[in-house]
Amino acid sequence: MKLRYLFVILLITSFLLPQQSSQAQSTAPTIDAVSAISIDSENGQVLMSQNADEILQVGSISKLLSVYVALKTIEAQDEWTRESIVPISDEAYQLSQDYNIGNVPLRQDYNYTVNELVEAVSINLANGATLALAEMVGETEADFVKMMETQLLEWGVEEFNLINSTGLEDNGETNAFSAEVAAIIAYHLVNDFPDYLDYSDQAKAVFKPNTDDAIDMNNYNQMLKGKPYERENVLGLMPGSSEQDGNSFVGYSNEDEFGIITVVLGTEDEDTRYEETDRLMDYSYSAYMKELVVSEGQPTTQVNTIKVEGSSESEAELIYGENMSLVVPIIDTAPRLEYEFSSNDALFEDRSYLVAPVEQGEVVGEMTIYGAGTEFTYLPSTKGNHVPVVQAEPIEEAAWYVNGWHSFSNGVSNTWESTRRFFVDLFN
């Protein structure tokens, strides 16, 4: 049985920021691109959206998905680590020798680690390195593309067209998906593999340093430090382009612990994608703020008392299992919060109470937190506005004789009540 409770409370005065509201942009800008989106990188909340569901050819941006699938698969295998040697096939070798596209030249008599090739992809958009990783993980590129498709489906993405692992054009086509999908990919990459930003925020690096094959890599991302469109606190991620749909960029920025992911797809020239990303970031930070609404370990006072049977403890002691922040508009009045609790069906099993034993940290349910009077949208498969509710301390099962006494007492009570009702009914 689902237990649901709804509460509305007034948020603390930390949300009162009248001095900032005068600077906030109340209207989202129109981005000079086919589509665009900005999201909170922690919860996946949509901050701005412009034709974000339109499918476009994205080129190298699809390498973000290739890197994600490669890292996820490698870390799930006991035989592989980030320091594992990646075989270089004839196809990967030949592709890496094309200097007209993003690449680092590979050799078949050299050893290259997963880390080295991921760095080359992240900085130099290295196509040969991308193919080598794909063939290591999927054995063939075709099988790896199927893995990429499976990952998108697991995230709830249904509309896309994947041709290869690199995003290179093939017969006039390249990998295609929407700005929303690009944001979902970037969201999972920076949350599941946060160290990926250590690769992508490097303006320059050397591939195979201290060897006779050392090569300077110059990041294609023009918003990093020292680049023409440098913006402080931008840490990645990746540009792309296609003959059909123009230039694109997926960016990540973190200012004052407020991380955002932006996607701009389909600009007419390379410079515009960075200029419009800068405008999109300006809007996101001027119109929204991030506030911690509950902390890990904080008692869940918004949940009604939940009884416990089979223990000397009569009530569950519930706390929040992790921190939860909301991104809210910068306004003059303090928004109210609404709390909705949903119980863990596996624990309650059509009951309104818990049965001992209950382990410390056991997830008893989930709290969904809303800003009253506001409609927030979260991308599929992201964290959203949910936070786990857990048991604070272990609840031990009572000794057999205690439970036996409780059962006896309940039995006597039930028998007496039945007898009383019998005589009441008899004489009435």
- The average pLDDT is 88
Q: What share of the residues does DSSP label as strand, in percent?
A: 15-25%
| SS-based class | alpha+beta
Largest sheet: 5 strands, antiparallel
Gross morphology is globular
For this entry, what is the oligomeric state of its chains? single chain
Stretches where pLDDT falls below 50 for ≥5 residues? Answer: 5-25, 400-428
Helical content (DSSP H or I, runs of 4+): 25-40%
Report the total helices. 11
Widest sheet: strand ordering: 1-15-17-18-13
Q: What is the CA-based Rg, rounded?
A: 27 Å
Order of SSEs: EHEEEHHHHHEHHEEEEEHEEEEEHEEEH
Termini distance?
Answer: 38 Å
What is the β-strand count? 18
Task: Explain what this protein looks like in three dimensions.
Residues 5-25 and 400-428 have low confidence and may be disordered. The protein is 30% helix and 24% strand. α2 runs parallel beside α5 and α3 (90-96) runs antiparallel to α5. It has 428 residues and is α+β, with helices and mostly antiparallel strands. It has eleven helices and 18 strands. The two termini are 38 Å apart. GO terms for molecular function: carboxypeptidase activity. Residues 1-24 form the signal peptide. Pfam families: Peptidase_S11.
Secondary structure elements and their pairing?
Layout: E1 4-10, H1 18-21, E2 35-40, E3 46-50, E4 56-57, H2 63-76, H3 90-96, H4 114-124, H5 127-138, H6 141-154, E5 176-177, H7 179-192, H8 196-200, E6 204-207, E7 215-218, E8 234-242, E9 246-255, E10 258-267, H9 270-287, E11 288-294, E12 308-309, E13 318-320, E14 324-329, E15 336-343, H10 345-348, E16 354-355, E17 363-371, E18 386-391, H11 400-426
Parallel strand pairs: 12-16
Antiparallel strand pairs: 1-15, 2-3, 2-10, 4-5, 6-7, 8-9, 9-10, 11-14, 13-18, 15-17, 17-18
Helix pairs in contact: 2-5, 2-7, 3-5, 4-5, 5-6
